[in-house]
Amino acid sequence: MNHTLKVLMAAAGAALFAALPMQAAAQKSAADGIAEYRKMLEDGNPADLFEAKGEDLWKQKRGPKAASLERCDLGLGPGVVKGAWVQMPRYFADTGRVQDLESRLLTCMETLQGFNAAEVAKTPFGKGEMANVTALATWISAESKGQRFALPQSHPQEQRMYELGKRAFFFRGGPMDFSCASCHGEKGKRIRLQDLPDLRSNPGDGIGFAAWPAYRVSNGEMWSMQLRLNDCFRQQRFPYPGFISDVTIALGVYMGVNAKGAESIAPAIKR
Questions:
Q1: Are 125 and 42 in contact (CB under 8 A)?
Q2: For residues 172 and 49, what is the distance between their CA atoms, to the nearest angstrom?
Q3: Cβ contact 144:213 at 8 Å
Q4: What would the pLDDT profile of 166-204 be if each residue is shown by its tens digit?
Q5: Separation of alpha carbons 178 and 183, rounded Å
Q6: Is the peptide bond before 156 cis (omega within 30 degrees of 0)?
Q7: How far apart are CA 267 and CA 205, in angstroms?
Q8: Known catalytic residues?
Q9: Could you tell me the pTM of the whole model?
């Protein structure tokens, strides 16, 4: 009996070890398949249309003041766009707060063009001036494509927002007891066929923070970082945060600082 049991156990162990490489190969094949699918779509990324619209909006004289955004300071000086995206969110002395790209655009639209920033912030994603903000963010991010993230952390407010973002990232709550870290707080996690990057540190070029804004094929929409974060709160079963709220900007600071040195591929394309 003992000999028979040992033979059966050895056979079971051999079968298990034989299956492991096959399982790993299948997982790799699935991940590679998704990567190839995205690569094929890149040549015809609809984000190009939003990018063109954003560039046109930047130069158009619009709003109650009939002015363009060409004097908007995104952190590198009035009108300087290239390189701005990979250094945001950051502190702005004129507003006395840390701002991400979308909140900074609202500031410029209000001060230069005369739009009511509070009213624009209440507009649903994809509608009216909110759709224009997304297009502007798409073009501005594209102007830094291929550059590497280097968010400033010299100002006390930038440091404070990083720590706030870190706390928000690990905060668990809601009916599912989820946090951002539940999905993005360790290496090698997946949901179905979707790899989940570890955002506690630099996940690599074009991954996580370095891939947004992005066009979502599944719903045919352009998603900004604010909308991406908004949807994460939805998946956590949390109430939607207010547009450009401190918590979403702080999360952007946390992920952006952690992505230091990563190459931006925005605007990207997603499933």
A1: no
A2: 38
A3: no
A4: 999 999 988 888 899 999 988 888 776 678 899 999 999
A5: 8
A6: no
A7: 13
A8: 232
A9: 0.85
